[in-house]
Amino acid sequence: MRALVTGITGFAGSHLADYLLSQGVEVWGTIRWRSLSANLAHLTGKLHLVECDLRDSTSVGSLLEQVRPDRIFHLAAQTFVPTSFHAPAETFIANTVSQINLLEAVLRVCPEARTLVSGSSEEYGRVLPEELPVKETNPLRPLSPYAVSKAAQDLLAYQYHQSHGLYIVRTRAFNHEGPRRAEVFALSSFAKQIAEMESGLREPVLLVGNLDSKRDFLDVRDVVRGYWLALELGEPGEVFNIASGHMWRIGDALDHLLALSKVRVEVRQDPARLRPSDVLLMLGDATNFRARTGWTPEIPFEQTLRDLLDDWRAHIGSQAKTSG
């Protein structure tokens, strides 16, 4: 089997590459401007990487002509919520136009391929307390330009399935963390700051945003396994939540990281880390997905946090040796 992963250099994309290779799948991925992420350094020689600008329909068509995939995992997107507030048009164009180009190329080149469109729990946005846990049928009330763009991707995928009969499965993954998470995201930022403090590279003052939001957290390795099962066992045209069914307060997750640290830390709020509007409560119901695929989370979130911190410790330690 041959799989194409858009956004393979990213956080989830690199972990999906790991999982697909473990299943004996031939893995192809898209990169831009010949830039190879450190996330894939451990997979050198095991992947087929193709330079492609997904915003260019000609480039996308050439990609699919070359790869002719059996499975497509569309993960590429501008995913950082604060950036979407600063660049809403760019975020919307990047996320929606890229997907339109991909699905149009699938129609022309490989209409029999199975495609997964990865959505986000951010699509649900403002969720009322009585609506928790959130089912797939809950209204979408997105609270950021990023969330609006993901809702548009979600609906475009549904439309292409209905209008053209493409085999498309949609997922709405809830917050996922783990090794290789970019430092711009809250828990990874906390872990990096702690690792820098432990190495003496930063004063023991940890900068945070809103610690009171509650999220349904998963390990990224459980999520990418879910992506695989969604395409193998999911129903085309349907949308599935991938969620743990448990909420963690951001501040409690920080406390767990601090308990793992080797330094005493002062926590200080940074106004620059606060969003204009924020999702305060998010708890997912993955009953449909579990029933359809048998998926269930396997990695406790406490282990995810430990692995995240250890990953930053290794990264910071490696940097220190290089600079030394």
Report on this structure.
The protein is an alpha/beta fold. The protein has 2 domains: 2-177 and 217-242, NAD(P)-binding Rossmann-like Domain (Rossmann fold); 186-215 and 247-279 and 299-323, UDP-galactose 4-epimerase, domain 1, CATH 3.90.25. 43% of the residues lie in helices and 17% in strands. Helix 6 packs across helix 10.
Please state the structural category.
alpha/beta
What is the residue-mean pLDDT, rounded to a whole number?
Answer: 95
Second-tier CATH architecture of the largest domain: 3-Layer(aba) Sandwich
Provide the β-strand percentage band: 15-25%
> So what's the CATH class of the largest domain?
Alpha Beta
* Record field, number of beta strands: 13
The helicity comes to 40-55%
What is the total number of structural domains? Answer: 2
Overall geometry: globular
What is the ordering of alpha helices and beta strands? EHEEHEHHEHEEHEEEHEEHEHH
Major sheet: arrangement of strands:
3-2-1-4-5-6-11
Q: Total helix count?
A: 10
Report the end-to-end length measured between terminal Cα atoms: 45 Å
